[in-house]
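The passage that follows is intended for readers who have already worked through the single-chain material. We present the inputs for a multi-component assembly, then the predicted structure in tokenized form, and finally a short commentary. You are encouraged to pause after the input and sketch how you expect the pieces to fit together before reading on.
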Amino acid sequence: MIPTLQWTPEGVRFIDQTRLPLEEAYVLATDYEQVAEVIVTMVVRGAPAIGVSAAYGVALGALRTTAKTTEEFAPEFERVCARLAGTRPTAVNLFWAIDRMKGLFGELRAAGATLDQIKEKMLAEAHAMYEEDIAACKAMGAHGGALLPEDGGVLTHCNAGALATCGYGTALGVIRAAVEQGKKIRVFADETRPFLQGARLTAWELMEDGIDTTVICDNMAASLMRAGAIKAVVVGADRIAANGDVANKIGTYNVAILAKEHGIPFYVAAPWSTIDLKTATGEAIPIEERPQVEVTHHGGKQLTPNGVGIRNPAFDVTPAKYVTAIVTERGVLRAPFSEALKAMQQRS
Amino acid sequence: MIPTLQWTPEGVRFIDQTRLPLEEAYVLATDYEQVAEVIVTMVVRGAPAIGVSAAYGVALGALRTTAKTTEEFAPEFERVCARLAGTRPTAVNLFWAIDRMKGLFGELRAAGATLDQIKEKMLAEAHAMYEEDIAACKAMGAHGGALLPEDGGVLTHCNAGALATCGYGTALGVIRAAVEQGKKIRVFADETRPFLQGARLTAWELMEDGIDTTVICDNMAASLMRAGAIKAVVVGADRIAANGDVANKIGTYNVAILAKEHGIPFYVAAPWSTIDLKTATGEAIPIEERPQVEVTHHGGKQLTPNGVGIRNPAFDVTPAKYVTAIVTERGVLRAPFSEALKAMQQRS
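Having made your guess, compare it with the prediction:
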């Protein structure tokens, strides 16, 4: 079991994803501000993992308060939620998790709960979200594993794995399930510049599980597709709009176009908490621009000349027309996605 | 003037492209073996620059021989040519340059030239190829500059610049010419993993010339195209087959597909020496697989977990159907390329 984040008596213990694969170091966040820092600095990343981390951050906000009563705590609770919500803009799971904690707080407050009861319930809610996340990944695997080929290469981009969730993974959960079903999957992992989540994290966690994995540079995918080495693509998502447009790690849109051009299915695996029916299309999804130093430097070494322009959008939007299917814990959705998403929302 | 390679009384002086942009270091190759090493280790790279370097390598083979006569030198000449031809497989300019030196040697030998005469003529031939290369780049600029937009972003991949030639550049020569014509070009340079020719070399040489340049990761191109930031793509080539298929730096094929999908013209700029009419299609072009360490490490720092699979093809093939036009020193070619290439070959 890969320990992405774990509750301990002192707070949340995160594996430091900035230091993998060569070092397995851990960071302990004992208050909500430290959880916010851990999200901003990408010690933890991946939409589902960010969501659950934020839930624990809110719970820590309650647990560590010096307020004596629920009413005294209420304005502080708002500040805690605002700080955590301000860490990263694109993954909707962050806002989903905070909203869920806000809803719980509102209910408990209205019911006249004591601050001690609120502390207990909030931690229990974060624990529930942690368990639900793993269960959702397993369900995605069960639904999505069937989509992958019996024998052949599967390309993934970034890390939508155990390290992006509380365990098992979304896209890598689908791959794990296919492997568990006895399929002979050879994974090609895009290294995923600039943060190298593929080269560092996907490679590391798939090797821990003994799954055949080859790292390629992001620009090698088209020639491998043309050579027949890739039979399917499966990626995660940071936010899925109501029309099925998918925001995910920068480069996902490139891969989706290449897959279409080569007639290769392009699958997106994400928990229902990633679906944002309040956002009509991908154009309304805010795209985070990360610090230039992620592109200009690696391991403290400068790559680019001083003063050159740099762009570093952390995500892109893949229009729904490139998506073959969306795999969620509730089942597999296919185009037209607007109708499919609405119908699945109502069913549950 | 960027000093990619320069003849000196001691041999050929190369700017060390593995150390740019932060260090301007030079390597002096005083014999053909050192020229071969400089090509293998990518101190010099870029198809046209490799070709001229090899020509100087052959000339150094003659100049440094201890043989006393042309006939005594003849078998050594074969070994020199074979060593240089074995350095890198994809760029046809290498073989073109060596074949030209072989042809000259054959003529001189048949005419009964002395070894001293052969030495002198070979060095003169290498000098001529150097000057022709710069002239070809200028002519490509004159032909190709007109193709670029009056105002807007132009994407280039890898480095097809002054550093890939004896000066001015092929793709970057086209950009330089457009800028000299008063066009407002903003260059987007794909960083070009794994060797980072874009981030390091294209960025460096365009900044030396004061051209507006922004480095992006290879996986950011599609979202910039969708946002309208890129109006044209121009790249170089390592070999162009008789049907117009283009071998170029890995990732070129990705960019070509993305350009097609967004309705953006995709131009290839290359000297006539890059065109290989003896190779029918791109499928027959050998693709060099470079050492894994280029992908697994950067600046001595390991990126990937131990033991993971790695692919590192240095080039890919872009089928002719994705190419809007090929810019050569002889003019601009458009589809159908088989006919256009044949016609231009016969005309000259």
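Commentary: Residues 115-144 of chain B form the longest helix (30 residues). The longest strand of chain B covers residues 184-190. How closely did your sketch match?
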